[in-house]
Amino acid sequence: MLAQEILLKRRAEILHALCSSGSGEHLEGVVDMLLAQGELGWEDYQNVLVPGRALYSNARQLLDLVYTKGADSCGLFFSAVKQVLPEEQSAGFFSSQRPSSLDDRVKPQRTATEDLLTQRPSLVCKLQGCIDGVLGALVESGHFSSTDCDGVQLPIHTPCQQ
């Protein structure tokens, strides 16, 4: 079965798995991975994770976008879901034909910005507990202003968005 068919057939289950915790962290993790792999562009990212819009609506937007991009995108989506969700939640989405792996892609040389985007998911995990310290170090080094810090620390941001 093609990854696109699986996405359509199991759409409700996927939505529930990504959103049932009430937190956007699973959805944000998947979007981060797709962005890091170049499957989503920055504009796609901003269209999916719209602040103030319901979590389920954001997740539906991602599923629609991935579906319209084709079977390869759906395969990459499932690989990202498998990495983000606990195994018992994601195991039922896959058929005997394993969707394409995120690691199967050939990686061209990248700029520093592209490297940062690629490493974003792991950086988010490492920084979640120490945002204040990181922001303080950035201000001290002159890379951030206090206004930049205030923008990051706004209460509307989730830990992943910070």
Automatic annotation (TrEMBL):
Matches recorded under Gene3D superfamilies: Death Domain, Fas (1.10.533.10)
InterPro entries: CARD, DEATH-like_dom_sf
One Pfam family this sequence matches: CARD
Superkingdom: Eukaryota
Domain annotation CARD: ranges: 1-83
Annotated protein name in UniProt: CARD domain-containing protein
Source species of the chain: Xenotaenia resolanae
Lineage, top ranks: Eukaryota, Metazoa, Chordata, Craniata, Vertebrata
